[in-house]
Design brief:
Blueprint: E1 5-10, E2 14-20, H1 23-28, E3 36-38, H2 41-48, E4 57-61, H3 63-73, E5 78-81, H4 88-99, E6 103-104, E7 116-123, E8 129-136, H5 148-152, E9 154-160, H6 167-183, E10 186-190, H7 194-208, E11 212-218, H8 219-226, H9 231-238, E12 242-248, E13 254-257, E14 262-265, H10 278-290, H11 296-311, H12 320-330
Parallel strand pairs: 1-5, 1-9, 2-7, 3-8, 5-6, 9-10, 10-11, 11-12
Antiparallel strand pairs: 2-4, 7-8, 12-13, 13-14
Helix pairs in contact: 3-10, 6-7, 7-8, 8-9, 10-11, 11-12
Length: 334
């Protein structure tokens, strides 16, 4: 019998605020291009003081949040486990998640005091995204926030790699994975960002343990984690830690290991303007596909097309009609 949720996600809850900036802006303000950097509130406010915040596009986000929203937009059932504060951004997050059709653990009448996290997403003309993130209350996400019955209700538990940066987050990742394994829920993990693998590899080794059912990463993350200098060797090494995996390759598409063979997923031609959210969209669309009767190959096609649409526009999320159009376009192949 199919479970209530296709995907139960857990991760940071951040209000994303996206801006167009120049390489010169990043250099002048000491921002490391192409990475997600954790900053304190003072540093984030300093950057906001020199950016035209009036032009910001604001959405509820966080890596795994973007993915479970994608699952919902394609017609799946998803849930998000996270933490926000009792402030304007926290209430905005709850309402935006609700509007996206995602169930969640948040009660707007009983939110905790604190500051909701937010992420400044700075996009340059080459479509590269650079993020400065103040975690706020989401850095306190812990085992206490995990709902065992909800994990049991999921076909997949999808764990965001960004949680690895705090001891309590890492503990929550390990505990949730164990609960999922005990209940027969498959476990998917995303590395989230090369910096996470570079600086927190030992933590990921702890979380992964013997293996995960499904791993999402890009080429750089695959080579950083395995310590290999080329993708061919890295993918062989990943077989030891993941029963199935997806390696996204940007403009070159993606590579999927379905447990037996490698499947090359062709890219869909697009004019890239913003890479923010492309990996999140790929994961969400792919998870929707494999939990709704589609093969790994056809799910990869869906994910590739959806992520190509994301990089051709600003923001990490599709409009509802765009998700429907993508499904209709691929319907004969799915």
């Amino acid at each position: 019998m199919k479970k209530k949720y296709d995907v139960v996600g857990m991760g940071n809850a951040l209000v994303d605020m996206e801006f167009k900036v120049s390489d010169q802006f990043l250099a002048e303000n000491g921002v490391e291009k192409g990475f997600m950097t954790l900053v304190d509130e003072e540093r984030q406010n300093e950057l906001m003081g020199v950016i035209n915040t009036a032009e910001a596009k604001k959405q509820c986000g966080g890596s795994a949040a973007n993915s479970v929203i994608a699952v919902s937009q394609f017609g799946g059932n998803s849930y998000y486990n996270c933490r926000v504060a009792n402030d304007n951004l926290g209430r905005f997050f709850v309402e935006d998640l609700k509007a996206a059709g995602v169930d969640h653990n948040l009660n707007v009448d009983h939110l905790e005091d604190g500051i909701t996290g937010k992420c400044l997403v700075m996009v340059t003309d080459d479509a590269e995204r650079t993020m400065n993130t103040f975690l706020g209350i989401t850095q306190d996400f812990s085992i206490a926030d995990i709902n065992e019955s909800i994990i049991n209700d999921g076909e997949f538990l999808y764990i965001e790699g960004y949680l690895i940066t705090s001891p309590n987050g890492k503990a929550a990742m390990k505990a949730a994975k164990k609960l999922a394994e005990q209940s027969g829920t498959k476990v998917a993990l995303t590395f989230s960002d090369p910096a996470m693998v570079k600086y927190f590899k030992e933590g990921f080794v702890e979380v992964i343990g013997a293996s995960v059912d499904l791993l999402f990463c890009n080429e750089e993350e695959a080579m950083l984690y395995t310590g290999k200098e080329n993708l061919k060797d890295a993918r062989e090494e990943l077989k030891k830690v993941a029963k199935h995996f997806v390696i996204t390759q940007g403009k070159n598409g993606a590579m999927i290991f379905d447990g037996d063979t490698f499947i090359d997923i062709e890219p869909y031609p697009t004019q890239a303007v913003d890479s923010n959210g492309a990996g999140d969209m790929f994961a969400g669309a792919f998870l929707y596909g494999i939990t709704n009767g589609h093969s790994y190959a056809s799910s990869g096609k869906l994910a590739s097309l959806a992520s190509s649409k994301i990089v051709s526009q600003f923001g990490p999320r599709l409009e509802w009609h765009e998700a429907k159009e993508i499904l209709e376009r691929l319907n004969p192949e799915l």
